[in-house]
Every structure is written in structure tokens, then in C-alpha cells.
């Protein structure tokens, strides 16, 4: 009953309502659908290397399997293949949340989360320069819908899922009626495309059939090409746009020990769009990137301060222990960390003023230069206790090995390790500073050295 009340409130005022951990009643959804009006926000703030940055993520495919797909190969031939791009966690949701705000707060699950309003997102950093943003979530029933899912109403198959929606879990978004209604579905994407009122940053999420989650790489890649190829001929969309095609995470969490660390959570990724210089079309970029690089990229391009919500943008581009963990693939810590607000960070544009104001005078939770002695092999801080199937391990003491990244070519050498540490590695991603997607233009390449 509480759920219905909440969603009816949403119909009149989209903001603020926390909905439910289950799918709301259809009647309530229909009522809100009838009255909730999409928000349109379009601007033209010129960037250094591109004027628009869009992402489309598919789901749960290992690098080698995606690289072997003919439609992925076709798309790659039109742009730059990123051969060392990594997911930042497992399962799905921590990856999406990480891409929105620079940390996953220890999240290691697909639960229903409301992230406190004092945690910033990339919307805050884009807002500092009035750069329009939005999301296009396929089959989301109405703009700003906050429910856990919305299934196909004929078959009841998985269709729209909140866990694949990067911004909706943040209270700073859901408490703002305008912001919430910038999160729209594909109907709005094509309306905004036709009306030439697209935002400058957008995240495009296909449904659970098209994103390969409930299907496979062949199906997902066919859908992806069918979505992207017509856009290539649309000069309004394509000119000065940088489009990232990637996957949230690998299908295989626990990579066999025989495989190099570099393959753990490595996802096949492509940069496309009119912003890609002609001489880079068909090339490969072997720089190590992660989902966090997408935030570094917009910071570098538009000279934006970073959300720094929890300061991770400075030196520490990997997961720290956090309150959203169930201690399955991450490490639980009850408190929300205090960001390091004095850092310059990433391309040198510092931390959002709002974050500095919020945390003024407070001592950062971590030494963000070296929060803990660090086990480079498994991207986990030494001395962190974590459990797998009821067995407790402490990184750097047991259950870890030593592997060292070579950031120039992504290869790694490994020594002793265990099955437990493999999943720790997959959870945390690369423990190095994440560069912007830098080979797009000379100016971007120059910025990489600041990161
Ligand atoms: C952005 O530029 C396009 C093309 O010049 C123009 O049609 C459009 O009105 C501009 N939009 C805004 C919000 O200034
Ligand atoms: C690669 O794709 C081809 C079809 O294009 C398929 O026959 C082959 O089995 C795939 N190889 C692997 C290793 O998946
Ligand atoms: C998409 O959102 C619009 C409102 O913006 C709504 O009318 C439409 O029914 C939605 N589409 C789907 C498939 O739910
Ligand atoms: C996902 O979207 C496609 C259209 O792109 C549609 O054919 C399919 O039925 C949708 N999946 C579900 C489960 O509704
Ligand atoms: C609400 O969100 C919009 C879009 O991000 C932003 O322009 C506006 O400043 C926000 N309002 C408040 C009160 O934060
Ligand atoms: C891939 O998924 C589609 C849609 O579910 C299905 O028709 C096809 O048989 C699947 N292919 C393989 C190789 O499983
Ligand atoms: C795009 O344009 C090219 C040539 O200009 C044409 O060959 C191709 O069929 C077009 N693609 C689509 C999807 O319209
Ligand atoms: C941040 O810098 C200011 C001015 O340099 C200094 O007073 C303050 O102690 C610093 N805060 C932290 C947490 O380092
Ligand atoms: C953070 O830790 C590193 C390594 O122990 C140390 O060199 C550095 O001085 C520390 N920074 C601060 C601000 O305490
Ligand atoms: C944990 O337990 C489950 C079920 O017993 C098993 O399938 C899985 O392989 C175990 N995982 C690890 C890392 O030992
Ligand atoms: C790892 O070391 C910690 C601390 O000494 C200990 O409590 C734990 O039981 C050890 N775990 C294993 C699997 O040996
Ligand atoms: C990658 O770097 C490592 C360490 O510097 C080196 O041993 C290896 O030969 C390099 N691999 C390639 C393919 O360049």
C-alpha cells in the first residue's frame, strides 16, 4: 500500500518519492505515465575534443567473446578499440553507479539503493557550466520512474531495470523534479533527436533483451549496430559527438589463475562518433581505462571540477570499503567517507565547490594518496578483511598475490594467489589513476599526463 501511495504522489510531483523495492502496481504506473511530462534540456557548450559525450552499455560479456562478434568488429572498424578498458565491480549496479559519481561506495549487489543527497554526481559537475545532460532508458514507463523494474506487460519478461540506470539511485537527482524528468525513455530519445534538442551528456540503456543480459552477445551486438548505424548518417547527432560503446562487466567473475590479471573484468570497448579524428578510425588504444575514465573524460573536455564526492577522483580510482556492501564482492564499512576536498584531481580542475562547502573543516576518511598500504596485485588495500563463502581473508596477509600493471601495454605478471583473491581483483578493477579517454584528439592526449 505504501508503494501505491508513493507512486501516486509521484504522478503529481515526480521529486522526492522513494518508491519500492518491488515493481509498483500497474495502475499506479499508468496514472503517473499519463501526467508526467518529460523535461528537455539542450545546450551548446563547446568542449576541447567533443561537444557531446554519450555512452551505451551492453551487459555481462567477456572481452574475447565480444571481440569475436562480427557486429562488434564492424562497429570497431568505424572507431577506436579500447583494448584495456575495465569494469569497476560486480555485479551490474556498482558499475553504473561508479560511472555516475566516481565510486560505488562498496556496492557489491543489485539491491534497491537511495544514495544520500550529499553525494554528488556528474550531473553536479556538468551543471557548473550549464552543460545539458540526460538519460535514455529503454521502456522506462515515464520520465523519472524510480521503481525497481518495469517488466514487459504482456510476457512479464525483464525489460527496464533500475540497476542499469546510473543516476536514478542518487537522492540529489530524485529530490529534484527537473533532474528526475531528464531521465526518459527511447521515445524521448527519438523525439529529442528529431527536434534537435539532445543533451550534451547522455547515458543510453537498452532493455534486458537488447543489452545481451537475457540474450547473448550476438543478439545484443545486432541490436547495438541497428541502433548506432542510422545515427552515423545523422549529422546533427554525429558531428562532434564522442560515443562510447562498452559493457558493464564481464560474464566471468573468477578468471582462472592461469590468465593474467589484465583480463579480469576487461570489457570490449569502442569509441565512435564524429569527434574521433579520421586518422584514428580503425586504430587501437591500449591505455588502461575504467568506467571512472568516463568522468575524467568530461572533466578534461569541459574543464570541470570533479564530483569528488568521496574524493576518489584524486589518486584512488578503485573501490574502497563502503556502506553499500553486503561483503560479497566488496568490504563493508558503515560510514560514508569524508572526501578529500583539498585535492586538485584528475585534469587539475579540483573538487566541486558544493562538495568543499559540505565537507568544510572535516578530516577526510582516507589518505587518498595511499589510503592503505596497497596490494597492487589485486587492487585491494593491505589489511582489508573480506569474506568469501564464510571464510575470512585479509588482503596482503592471505588470499592475495602480487601482480603489477604495465599501464603502457596492459600486460601483467602474476605470482602466488588464490581463488578468493581473484574475485577481489575483479571487484576492484585497476588500482591506478584513471585517464580520460585520451587518444581522441591531441589536446586530450596531453591531458592524460595530468591524471
Ligand atoms: C545549438 O546550436 C544549434 C545549431 O547551431 C542551434 O540550432 C540550437 O538552437 C542551439 N541550441 C541552443 C540551446 O543554443
Ligand atoms: C567466433 O565467432 C564465430 C562466428 O562468427 C564462431 O563460429 C566461433 O565459434 C567464435 N569463436 C569463439 C572462440 O567464440
Ligand atoms: C515512454 O515515456 C513516455 C512518456 O514520456 C510514455 O508515454 C511512454 O508510454 C513510455 N514508453 C514505454 C514503452 O513505456
Ligand atoms: C526490448 O525492446 C525490444 C525493442 O527494441 C522489444 O522487441 C523487446 O520485446 C523488449 N524486451 C522486452 C522483454 O520487453
Ligand atoms: C535541479 O536539476 C537541474 C538540472 O540538473 C538543475 O539545473 C537545478 O539547478 C537543480 N535544482 C536544484 C534546486 O538543485
Ligand atoms: C541468442 O539469443 C537469441 C535471442 O534470445 C536466440 O534466438 C539465439 O538462439 C541465441 N543464440 C545463441 C547462440 O544462444
Ligand atoms: C549511410 O550513408 C551511407 C552513404 O552515405 C549509405 O551507404 C548507408 O546505407 C547509410 N546508412 C544508413 C543506416 O542509412
Ligand atoms: C585544506 O587546505 C586549507 C588551506 O590550505 C587548510 O587550512 C586545511 O587544513 C586543509 N584541509 C585538509 C583536510 O587538509
Ligand atoms: C599518505 O600516505 C602516504 C604513504 O604512506 C604518505 O607518503 C603521505 O604523506 C600521506 N599523506 C597524508 C596527507 O597523510
Ligand atoms: C561459494 O559457494 C558456492 C556454493 O557452494 C560455490 O558455487 C562457489 O563456487 C563458492 N565460491 C567460492 C569463491 O569459493
Ligand atoms: C587470513 O588471516 C587472518 C588474519 O590473520 C585470519 O583471521 C584468517 O582466518 C586467515 N584466513 C585464511 C583463509 O587463512
Ligand atoms: C609489455 O610490458 C612488459 C613490461 O614492461 C614487457 O615485458 C612486455 O614485453 C610488453 N609487451 C608488449 C606486447 O609490448
Automatic annotation (TrEMBL):
Gene3D superfamilies tied to this protein: Alkaline Phosphatase, subunit A
Q: Which InterPro entries match?
A: Alkaline_phosphatase_core_sf, Phosphoesterase
Report the leader peptide range: 1-16
Q: Which BP terms from GO are recorded? A: phospholipid catabolic process
Q: Which UniProt keywords apply?
A: Hydrolase, Signal
Q: Which Pfam families match?
A: Phosphoesterase
- Give yes or no: UniProt keyword Chloroplast: no
What name has this protein been given in UniProt? Phosphoesterase family-domain-containing protein
The organism of origin for this protein: Penicillium malachiteum
Upper classification of the organism: Eukaryota, Fungi, Dikarya, Ascomycota, Pezizomycotina
Amino acid at each position: 500500500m505504501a508503494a501505491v501511495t508513493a507512486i501516486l504522489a509521484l504522478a503529481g510531483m515526480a521529486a522526492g518519492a522513494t518508491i519500492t523495492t518491488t515493481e509498483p502496481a500497474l495502475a499506479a504506473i499508468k496514472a503517473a505515465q499519463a501526467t508526467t511530462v518529460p523535461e528537455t534540456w539542450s545546450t551548446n557548450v563547446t568542449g576541447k575534443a567533443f561537444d557531446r559525450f554519450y555512452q551505451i552499455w551492453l551487459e555481462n560479456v567477456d572481452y574475447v567473446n565480444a571481440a569475436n562478434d562480427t557486429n562488434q568488429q564492424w562497429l570497431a572498424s568505424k572507431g577506436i578499440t579500447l583494448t584495456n578498458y575495465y569494469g569497476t565491480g560486480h555485479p551490474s549496479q556498482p558499475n553504473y553507479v561508479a560511472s555516475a559519481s566516481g565510486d560505488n561506495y562498496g556496492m557489491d549487489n543489485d539491491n534497491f539503493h537511495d544514495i544520500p543527497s550529499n553525494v554528488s554526481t556528474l550531473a553536479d559537475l556538468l551543471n557548473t557550466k550549464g552543460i545539458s545532460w540526460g538519460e535514455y532508458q529503454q521502456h522506462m514507463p515515464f520520465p523519472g520512474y524510480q521503481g525497481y523494474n518495469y517488466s514487459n506487460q504482456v510476457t512479464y519478461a525483464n525489460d527496464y531495470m533500475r540497476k542499469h540506470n546510473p543516476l536514478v539511485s542518487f537522492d540529489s537527482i530524485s529530490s529534484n523534479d527537473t533532474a528526475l524528468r531528464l531521465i526518459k525513455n527511447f521515445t524521448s530519445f527519438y523525439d529529442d533527436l528529431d527536434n534537435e534538442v539532445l543533451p550534451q551528456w547522455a547515458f543510453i540503456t537498452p532493455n534486458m533483451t537488447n543489452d545481451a543480459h537475457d540474450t547473448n552477445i550476438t543478439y545484443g551486438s545486432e541490436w547495438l549496430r541497428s541502433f548506432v548505424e542510422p545515427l552515423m548518417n545523422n549529422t546533427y547527432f554525429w558531428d562532434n559527438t564522442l560515443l562510447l560503446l562498452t559493457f558493464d562487466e564481464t560474464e566471468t567473475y573468477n578468471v582462472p589463475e592461469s590468465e593474467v590479471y589484465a583480463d579480469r573484468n576487461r570489457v570490449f570497448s569502442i569509441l565512435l562518433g564524429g569527434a574521433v579524428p579520421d586518422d584514428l578510425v580503425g586504430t587501437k588504444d591500449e591505455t588502461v581505462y575504467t568506467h571512472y575514465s568516463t568522468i575524467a573524460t568530461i572533466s578534461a573536455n569541459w574543464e570541470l571540477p570533479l564530483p569528488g564526492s568521496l574524493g576518489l577522483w584524486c589518486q584512488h580510482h578503485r573501490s574502497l570499503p563502503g556502506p553499500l556492501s553486503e561483503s560479497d564482492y566488496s568490504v563493508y564499512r558503515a560510514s560514508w567517507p569524508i572526501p578529500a576536498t583539498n585535492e586538485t584531481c584528475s585534469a587539475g580542475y579540483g573538487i566541486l565547490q558544493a562538495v568543499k562547502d559540505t565537507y568544510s573543516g572535516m578530516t577526510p576518511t582516507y589518505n587518498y594518496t595511499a589510503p592503505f598500504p596497497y596490494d597492487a596485485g589485486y587492487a585491494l588495500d593491505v589489511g582489508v578483511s573480506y569474506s568469501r563463502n564464510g571464510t575470512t581473508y585479509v588482503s596482503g596477509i592471505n588470499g592475495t598475490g602480487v601482480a603489477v600493471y604495465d599501464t603502457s601495454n596492459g600486460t601483467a605478471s602474476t605470482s602466488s594467489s588464490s581463488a578468493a583473491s581473484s574475485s577481489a581483483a575483479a571487484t576492484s578493477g585497476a588500482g591506478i589513476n584513471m585517464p580520460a579517454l585520451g587518444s581522441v584528439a591531441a589536446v586530450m592526449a596531453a591531458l592524460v599526463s595530468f591524471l
